[in-house]
Design brief:
The chain is α/β, with parallel strands linked by helices. It is built from five helices and five strands.
């Protein structure tokens, strides 16, 4: 079974970089730049992971919480794209499993997604 990711970012540059990283890692990404579409998908469809741009707050936190409240995504892996390390309370409250730092490099994103795939299995 192929892994599926819900990718939320308002940045087309971030979406392009992460879509390419997902393809290299064998993850099929569904890209949403609109929070309402992302939340609807996160509530109704099953995803192996949710990848969200931390810069798009408070939408990112809301999406992560709503996705994990839905039955199909209770155990989804949460990955945040960050400019800097989130505070410990943010890591805990959003149950972030992995972080990908900006600027997004192919090597780092591929390594993080490979680790995430191990956790998804």
């Amino acid at each position: 079974m192929a892994f599926r990711a819900l990718l939320f970012s308002k940045s087309s540059e971030t979406n392009a970089a992460m879509t390419a990283a997902c393809e290299r890692t064998g993850i099929r990404a569904e890209v949403c730049s609109d929070i309402f579409t992302a939340i609807e998908k996160g509530k109704k469809r099953a995803f192996s992971c949710v990848i969200a741009d931390w810069a798009d707050q408070p939408e990112t936190s809301f999406l992560l919480k709503r996705a994990r409240e839905s039955a199909p995504n209770r155990d989804t892996v949460a990955i945040a794209i960050v400019d800097h390390e989130p505070r410990p309370a943010e890591l805990r409250d959003n149950r972030l499993d992995f972080l990908i730092y900006r600027p997004i490099s192919a090597e780092e994103s591929d390594a993080v997604l490979a680790k995430a795939c191990q956790q998804m299995q």
